[in-house]
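re: ur question from yesterday

yeah so i grabbed the chain u mentioned. its 369 aa long if i counted rite. heres the sequnce exactly as i have it in my notes:
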Amino acid sequence: MSQLRSPLIWVPLVVLVVLIGGYTIYWHSLKQDVLDGVAEWADDRRADGMIVTYDRAVVTGFPLDLNLDIHTLTIADPQHPNEWSWTGDHVDVALNPFQLTRVNAHFLGDHQFTYVDRQQTDKSLRNEILSEADNARLALTLGRNKVKQIYSEIDGWRGQFRAAGSDQFLPVTAEKYRMQIETTPQDTNGPLVTAEENTLETQTMLLQLETLTLPAGTFPPLGDVIGLVEAKTQLRNLPADFQRADDRDDALRRWAEKDGSFDIEALHMLWGDLDLTAEGEISLDRRYRPQGAITTLAGGYNDVIDGLTEQGQLDETLASIIKSALNLIALTGKDEKGRLHIPLDMRGGMLYLGPIKLTDLPPLVSEED
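ran it thru and got these structure tokens back, copy pasting raw so excuse formatting
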């Protein structure tokens, strides 16, 4: 006579079946939420006056991944002063089913970006950039109703630039590009802050660019290759809704009224003979004009001055004044690489090189009536 088995032995199997079934329902529910989210995002942008189209959006990856493939995505803003538009062959977005606040997007195939120069007379003519890359990735960390962190990287970028009205495409390439922007609550250590001030934020940007090759003859005195750009900057005391502000003038006014500042913690550029480092702090005065000071350490600056003068971008008289001021500063000595300490000061709506006034600084936003 066979021995009866306890019904309890089936419990683990039942639990496993329930878990698998529940997860399957959960994954397919997320799939539909993602597709609905894409459609809702597109509708919201259209309601704002933008143009958003795509051929199709597909979600795959069951069971462990959630991959969103968007084919032939076009985004354009005809209301923007530059009337820009972007079209990408294929955007592959990777999501973690258990951590939806982290988004990784890879941009595959060819991409086209067009825009209008604000100064050009014929607005029907557009500048155009065609590009592809060995690797182009954008990573986002999402918070409540906003993006907390943006990280972008591009390797082996190959572009073709065509100026408005021209039939010729000119090559532009870059070996490496990295940028990270992180938004964090403003540090409240120190003086007492009010509840309203607690809504302020700090935005930190890290930038690295290596071997950017420009079209031939872009700036002859320094050459066509920018060897290196490295920077760390901070925007401090940003209003919490700054990213989503519809009125940029109003947002800048509120930033200035909260003693906002743009801090250059470190900047280094190598371009031809130019070797430049800089640090400083800039804010806006009561008339919304830049104010502050930047200290630079520069070598090869004479080539920049001569190049700007030859191209008509710098008045010859002013160029002579700048060179005279730099020669006086050079009497105090240079560093071991032959670079010169160059102080730039912004005050009272004017830009000074040492004691010498260089130019006026207009307001960045229109003054209220």
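noticed a couple things. The chain has four helices and 16 strands. also Helices lie at 11-47, 248-257, 301-310, 316-330.
anyway ttyl
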